[in-house]
# Entry
Amino acid sequence: MGQRFRFDPEAERQVYEVSNLKGVSSVIAFPNIRIAKSGLAGVAIESDRIYPGLVGEDVGCGMSLFMLDLQARKVDSQLFLSRMRKLREPWIADASRMMEEAGLPAELHRAALGTLGGGDHFCEIQSFGTAADGWSLPTLPRDTAYLLVHSGSRSLGATIASLARHPSPDGLEPGSDDEVSYLAIHDVAVRWASINRKAIALRVASLMGVELHLACDVPHNLVERREGKWLHRKGTARAEGGVVPVAGFRNSPSYLVTPSARIGDFGHSLPPSAASRYQTVDQLDSGQDGKGHLELTGGAGSSVAEIQRFDVATPLASFRPLATFKEYAAQR
# Structure
């Protein structure tokens, strides 16, 4: 049992509430746990059935990190921000091949493709900060500018969420037509959201007159089958190996981390963003009767400091923000 730290009372209430849902076997809360617009976020939840509400409306939301063929020292932040205003306009490029390669209809939600959306979504141009001792990756050069894109499935996800609303409080019955239908449209949204982040990055590169290369693409709102259970992630990044971006905020650095061998104990998930003001890491395990007990195993500090302290992941490098663009506000 770890020392008890401040925990958002409403988030704590919802953690217990979710733990008592039928079929839920564990709830893991990360340092970025919070109450979002559509419910509890910053959690990974295992269950024997799917609860669409635990994924929320922005199905497939995630972050992608790109390398730009541009030296960081040559980035003009004000020019970047002025050109990014074009992202508020529809993307007129031919995206049919990109959609086709993903197995999606060329015109699916076409008007929203290549747009950020509101809320916490952003695109940020960054410079390489520092690297962990002994870590070197030739594919991530230190003098290069990087682009971090955070976006999701736009109103497509909201449409899916409305279609998936179910009158039963017990989730989707395993093997039912409702489950099959939800998974089909859910998977489409996850793929579309990934393509949308790529489309945004392509627009940025075109506006800046540079080429780009994908470093990683990691969703953090989805449900998937894992070890005989349905793993729901909302505001928690899929950590299946490789690297995972952890975004900062308010001009603070972002990080690239790699999961440790213990990642399975934490739902193969990591926090994709900075810690909430309550800054805790907890794990809740339910017994067979579905009644869980909350074991607080974390303390104060940023998301990266917490996951490193508990040997969940290792930070590899930091990235400094040069300019951040959001749909309704641009800040430096």
The first strand starts at residue 24 and ends at 36. The mean pLDDT is 83. The CA atoms of residues 52 and 165 lie 7 Å apart.
